[in-house]
Amino acid sequence: xxxxxxxxxxxxxxxxxxxxxxxxxxxxxxxxxxxxxxxxxxxxxxxxxxxxxxxxxxxxxxxxxxxxxxxxxxxxxxxxxxxxxxxxxxxxxxxxxxxxxxxxxxxxxxxxxxxxxxxxxxxxxxxxxxxxxxxxxxxxxxxxxxxxxxxxxxxxxxxxxxxxxxxxxxxxxx
Length: 174
Hints:
Largest sheet: 5 strands, mixed
Mean pLDDT: 90
Number of helices: 4
Strand content: 25-35%
CATH topology: Beta Polymerase, domain 2
Number of strands: 7
CATH class: Alpha Beta
Low-confidence stretches: none
Radius of gyration: 19 Å
Structural class: alpha/beta
């Protein structure tokens, strides 16, 4: 292992040692980037540990993903090692799969890390993930009159205009 990735690998090794089988996957993606996958609600333990161990206070974003295998997931992006004391930041992408595509739920990080409420609201709004424990999952981006149960970031979402275009193409084939 090159010296430049040693800090990243030490973080991965520490997480594996601390959490054992709760770490489903962990790898150094590249310099300054670590990917970790855990099950719900183990992400809350990992976040809490990272905050205590490495002062991981900066939540960059929470992404929601409709993976190719049809699983809905959330990815918490945060600086596991903030840029203090002349050190460069190391960011972690912490992925958690939802068990049920039709009713995706995950434990909320609202009580752990500032900013989680906002990002969880966005993922709820656009992908339909219910973050249990988040006190405010009201619409954030979509208009209030947007249909309930319709999530525009899911792969199976089609706008009415797209449906019309597909219908026209099917008609032409006949």
